[in-house]
Amino acid sequence: MIGAMIAKSAIGKAFDALNRHDIAKFMSAWRDDGVFIYPGDIPQSGTFKGKAAVEEWFGNFFYQFPKIQFDIQDICVRNILAVTGTNTVAVHWNIQLTNQDGREGQNSGVTVIKVAGGRVVWVKDYIFDLGENFKRNWGAI
Fold first, then answer.
1. Taking a C-beta distance cutoff of 8 angstroms, is the pair 76, 89 a contact?
2. Which of 29, 45, 48, 106 has a CB 3.0–4.6 Å from the CB of 53, allowing a cystine?
3. Contacts of 71 (CB under 8 A, 6+ apart)
4. CA nearest neighbour of 121 among 29, 42, 3
5. 39-98 residue pLDDT tens
6. Residue 2 pLDDT > 80, yes or no?
7. If we measure between CA atoms, which residue out of 11, 141, 136 comes closest to residue 65?
8. For the chain, what is the total number of helices (H) and then of strands (E)?
9. pLDDT band for position 1 (cuts 50, 70, 90)
10. What residues contact residue 22 under an 8 Å CB cut-off, 6+ apart?
11. Are 71 and 95 in contact (CB under 8 A)?
12. Structure confidence at residue 28 as a pLDDT band (50, 70, 90)
């Protein structure tokens, strides 16, 4: 149970940092060799390897979306007893956002996060709507 509480607290803080566009706080939990995978078939999609590449991606995300609000719906923790900071967590979220052109949007998804020794190693987003609205929000069409 302690492992779940630790993981949930850390995840809550990370999503709060995203909502505030606090890239320094958000990236402070990442390992130098961390990997982020973003879905879809837009220029922002792909696999980003290394802390610098991940930080650049999120900097672009914050630029494209000056207003974001993640609302966490559920957090599922693989090992509820883990206290060493090594675990896998799935976060179900909804997001309200406004892009740099003032277009408002919303979406939902799941983010899977693998942590080792208290540092983020691997993150993959699964987003519900990758269609026209997703692409328009990113300015891809």
1. yes
2. 48
3. 93, 94, 95, 96
4. 29
5. 999 999 999 999 999 999 999 999 999 999 999 999 999 988 887 889 999 999 999 999
6. no
7. 136
8. 4, 6
9. low
10. none
11. yes
12. very high
What's the whole-model pTM score? 0.95
Query: Residue type at 84?
Result: T
> What beta strand segments (E) does 1-141 contain?
30-38, 46-49, 67-77, 87-98, 104-116, 119-127
Q: Which CATH class is domain 2-137?
A: alpha beta
> What pLDDT, on the 0 to 100 scale, is given for residue 5?
85
Alpha-carbon gap, residue 134 to 118, rounded angstroms: 32
Please tell me what DSSP assigns to residue 133: H
Q: What DSSP string describes 29-51?
A: TEEEEEEEEE-SSSTT-EEEESH
Q: Is 106 helix (H, G, I), strand (E, B) or coil?
A: strand
Strand order in the sheet with 87-98: 46-49, 30-38, 119-127, 104-116, 87-98, 67-77
Task: Write out the two tokens for 16.
Answer: 């709060």
124's CB contacts (< 8 A; 6+ apart) are: 36, 37, 111, 112
**Residue 80 per-residue DSSP state:** T
* DSSP at 26: H
